[in-house]
Amino acid sequence: MRLGIDLGGTKIEIVALADDGAELLRRRMPTPQGDYLATTEAVAGLVAAAERELGRRGTVGIGIPGAESRVTGLVKNANSTWLIGRPLRHDLQARLQREVRLANDANCFALSEATDGAAAGAAVVFGVILGTGVGGGIVAHGRVLAGANAIAGEWGHNRLPGDEAVWPACYCGRRGCVETFLSGPGMQRDHAGAAGAAIDAIDIAARTAAGDAACAATLARYEARLARALAEVVNILDPDVIVLGGGLSNLDRLYDNVPQLWGEFIFSDHVATRLLKNRHGDSSGVRGAAWLW
Length: 293
Prior knowledge:
Layout: E1 2-7, E2 11-17, E3 23-30, H1 36-54, E4 59-64, E5 67-68, E6 75-76, H2 88-96, E7 100-104, H3 105-116, E8 124-130, E9 134-140, E10 143-144, H4 178-182, H5 184-195, H6 201-209, H7 213-237, E11 241-245, H8 254-262, E12 274-277, H9 284-290
Parallel strand pairs: 1-4, 4-7, 8-11, 11-12
Antiparallel strand pairs: 1-2, 2-3, 5-6, 8-9, 9-10
Helix pairs in contact: 1-2, 3-9, 5-7, 6-7, 7-8
């Protein structure tokens, strides 16, 4: 039995998978925000409760919103900032009395979709999270690529290609990161700057469908930026499939419009890369954490 845990900023979710990928159990609880010790205890409690309910012991894989430093073994680059600088894997292994595998949550998403999701059977997969933040993960021939610095796939903290009137500040300390444009809050900020209305991505999409010209213009800008940003990924990685996850992946128009735009920026006479919506939805990351084993 494989146990996967998605350690998010607002919730912690656990799933138990049988060897064939069948889901045996799923539970979730609020994340104890800002409290590292309470967070580790919450993870341990979910594992203990799942194993008690199912009557067996499982392997444990955990997806986190950051990475583990190759040098120190401590968490880095986490937008759940109370994890930064902490020996999370070491502490959880001591608490659970077994080996724990840790990976970036976007890597887990990519692994899930490459294993039995939208990109199953593809040789090289780039998984994209478009949500509160922007993340990415790479799976090649069934294996996650973490990279020499444990940052493979972190396209969200590259500068958005192209000329922009404003380069917003990012929490990472840089300006103009892809995340500041292509996250949900990034779209909301862009629309507020252009149209003066503070509405979220769901409302922007709904109003576009109802004929709102300002909202339609916001979505068009978003699609053009997404096309430019993904084109750089294709030029470097040349993946067979790019799979979108996160709340903004539910904008169905992206799958038609973005591939019509990205060819201008891709160094090829023909683009065979497919842009696909995830199969497992919000559960994909937690399933990928289980598939770390």
